[in-house]
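Retro notes, structure queue

What went well: the backlog is down to a handful. What didn't: a couple of records were mislabeled last round, so from now on we paste the full input next to the output in the thread. Example, using DUF3347 domain-containing protein from Chitinophaga oryzae:
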Amino acid sequence: MKTIIITTLTVTTLAFAACNNQPASHEGSHTDSTATAHHHDAAPAAAADITTVKPQFTDVDPAIATAMKGLVDGYLQLKNSLAADDDAAAGKAGQSMSAALAQVDASRLTADQKKIYDNNEEDLKEHADHIRKNVGNIAHQREHFVMMSDDMYELVKAFGGGQPLYRTHCPMYDQNKGAYWLSESVTVKNPYMGTKMADCGSVKEMIDTGKP
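Corresponding output:
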């Protein structure tokens, strides 16, 4: 599996105070540590603008745009399932993402588009499959969701996804190593910490993905 290194854009952050002074997460490779976390109400978002990122490609084939929208829809379903601690629904969402990937007709991609898509397709398939197969092991589903979120970030930056998306950061996941995810809303619903710390996180970037 490739290693993805993402350079975070300099943005003005919509900050939430939910994670301040919280105990560290101790989620291991296959264990869910949210039982020891404590839920705090989120502070209101700071009244500040954030940088809006537009998709790289403006010449996306309509069939590709539609397929990407389906992929984003499955991803958001998965994100919300993990935020609700619903491993069964997360498994179904993983299956939906696999189906969405099968709808992408790579012959409609330009050479530059194909490079980005090919760089993420196999990883996404693998993560979706692992999440589908690991109903009953939400910690493992979340591990794959971390890497899946990085792949999805690369795709929506390139192709769009049919709606504005917000790149959000959890500083506490995996013993404070942190992890990102994409959301349809500035309201934080943390897929890594679940219902015990639902509002832990801060919005870092908005991707104006447009419509297919």
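Agreed that this is the format going forward. Reviewer comment attached to the example: The chain has five helices and four strands.
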